[in-house]
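pasting for ref
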Amino acid sequence: MPKTLKVISIVLFFFSLLPIVSSQAQTTDSIRIITYYPSPYGSYRELRTKRLAIGDDYIKTGVPPDKYDWQEYATDPMHNIGYNTDLVVQGNVGIGTTMPESNLDIVQENGFPVIYLDGYGTRSGTVNYAPHFIGRTARGTAASPQATQLGDGLLVLRGLGYGSGGWVGGNSGSGQIIVYADGDFTSTSSPGKIIFYTTPIDSTISSERMIISSSGNVGIGTTSPQTPAPGGGTTGNLDVNDVYLRSTGKWASQGGGGVVQMVSTNYTGTMDSAGIPWDNTIPLYSEGSEILTYVFTPKYPDSMIRIDVVVSGDEIGQTTAIVALFNGTTCVDAVASYGHDSPHDYNLLYTESSGSTSARTYSVRVGNMRVNSSNDIANPPLGGKYISKMIITEIRT
């Protein structure tokens, strides 16, 4: 019978009982009628609703905390549904599967599932409006969250494969990327680190392979990248066990060409009248003026030492300046240039074998020389200001 006819019949039957009820004034009976349409279990071709709550807890009757109502969230966040919330699901949700194994389980037969995060509008220049995939972790409970602590996992991206009888890898997978808290969280501090894991052949347990620490250092084969680096940097450093250089076909530990250390020293000042004679002899340590010096200690006895020197200066008149590089008191390289009343650059590039791990002093001396029509040597002041720099690099060869 259609529902409308059912309701009419019930109403007519109810009114037919009124004379009997009135004749027995002391009787106070009530009738409760519950109808289902189409039934407690059924299907609809179409179902449209403004909002929907799914789950056993959401169909309870009574008053809070047993009953959930759509109200302003602040009134009772644990037993009210936010007024602007359109869908609430208590259990698991399956898309393409009737047996979801997690809060959201997406299955795609003969293909691969894809999730799109689309964003539109003019939002150039800021990442805040780009599509986000965010993991949030707190201690405590949803009703009373507590601060995240050192070592807490914040986000996991994991890949699993299917073995002979099920998914293999469990809580580690074949490869995973995990974001960890790298310190206790406060309102002004939220340090994090990222660790990359892979699982080797003949194993189902992944191992840490690479880390990016909260200070910005990268470690491969170590979970604690060394810092500071020999050059003094505390961030942006790479700590690895070894490096293979394709350009040399060697490992760094076998002399593959890795930079061991690099140092530099600078000088800015006005030159005096000291000269280095232009007499076809090697400059002497007693000639000219010292503008740069550095005591350098190689780390390996068989590495290459590279020294780059740049001197920029402004000569007076047509002065010929000589720049000489010394190892101890021995001149190992020199360059001369004829000035033309304008700033001029002098460049030296010198290499030698370290030979040992003993300290040695590299220095740069500058002098000038003028030759007159009688080939007499005079040494007027260079004048002007000199800006110079010496870079010393030790390289494994």
